[in-house]
User: Which sequence fits this backbone?
């Protein structure tokens, strides 16, 4: 999951359209940090201020091949100071639709393509301070090919039998991966 | 069980031992944004830069009372531009230990105290760009009291029967809450 921003606009993005809950907007909003990978916005909401990491949105995939193996990627996570085992995932680029982005990220990171896709869930990763909304997909019957990760990604593809997932959740230290695998198990196994 | 490396040319490092946490550190690191709620650090790792949101860590609680009701809080999430239904949660303060912090946050946000506690998991919420590590607890048999939320928190306590959780996961749009409820169901129901 590259953390760079590719074609995402620098300015404020509209919140994604996702449901029937009450719409809200700040009194004022200004960019207080214009970063390389993300910006930070300071918003005023009545008496309170909110400092928010701008993010274009993201995707993650529970991809299972015809042998019943789920694909994970092990990668160096500088923010965590360690390597983590995660679902293939990435950031929405430009005007990409989530499903299109998810197929692209899965192919780039693992070489897996094809299969039957469905959306498992959509959620905010850290709604207390970040705009990131993630779309989570399941892809079943995917086929193996050649990966082509980003230059700054060092990925190791790891395959687990789906039926081992439940016993190996303790090896997962990433929120989207826990949520994704658990949702998949609940619906499938 | 690693099967193959995804990017052969760049992956010259040795594969990590399974389950061993290889410690890593950047070549250089500097604060590029000194914020009100969080800072941003720019780290250099060889040829690559990483922009990282600094975060002290966090806690979340699946709290179930003696009537078998799980406690959720509905609150305005400015970053999401809507209200979300989430597990009681909060940020580690000072030298607080995670369990101590979780008990404090639960009491402040919901008035619930006591009960039998255990840690369900610990995970990074967004390891691609943020340091936040979250400790997730289950607290069973908690007792009702008076809440005392922060001045800038507008919280509504929502109670669901534990046995309704599985059918209502579609109402949850927050990663930690999905992961927490699913882990709890898996271990308990």
Assistant:
């Amino acid at each position: 999951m590259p953390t760079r921003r590719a074609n995402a606009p620098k300015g404020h993005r509209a919140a994604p359209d996702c449901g029937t809950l009450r719409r809200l907007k700040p009194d004022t909003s200004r960019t207080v940090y214009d970063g390389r990978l993300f910006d930070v916005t300071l918003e005023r909401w009545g008496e309170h201020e909110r400092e928010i990491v701008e993010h274009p949105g993201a995707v993650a995939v529970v991809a299972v091949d015809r042998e019943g193996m789920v694909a994970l990627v092990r990668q160096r996570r500088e923010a965590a100071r360690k390597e983590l085992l995660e679902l293939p995932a990435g950031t929405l680029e430009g005007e990409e639709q989530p499903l299109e982005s998810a197929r692209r990220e899965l192919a780039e990171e693992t070489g897996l393509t094809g299969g039957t896709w469905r959306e498992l869930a959509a959620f905010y990763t850290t709604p207390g301070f970040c705009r990131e909304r993630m779309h989570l997909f399941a892809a079943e019957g995917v086929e193996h090919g050649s990966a082509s990760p980003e230059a700054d990604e060092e990925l190791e593809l790891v395959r687990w039998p789906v039926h081992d997932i439940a016993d190996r959740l303790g090896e997962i230290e990433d929120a989207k991966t826990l949520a994704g695998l658990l949702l998949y198990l609940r619906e499938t196994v």
Remarks:
- Residues 28 and 44 of chain B are 5 Å apart (CA to CA).
- The longest strand of chain B covers residues 133-142.
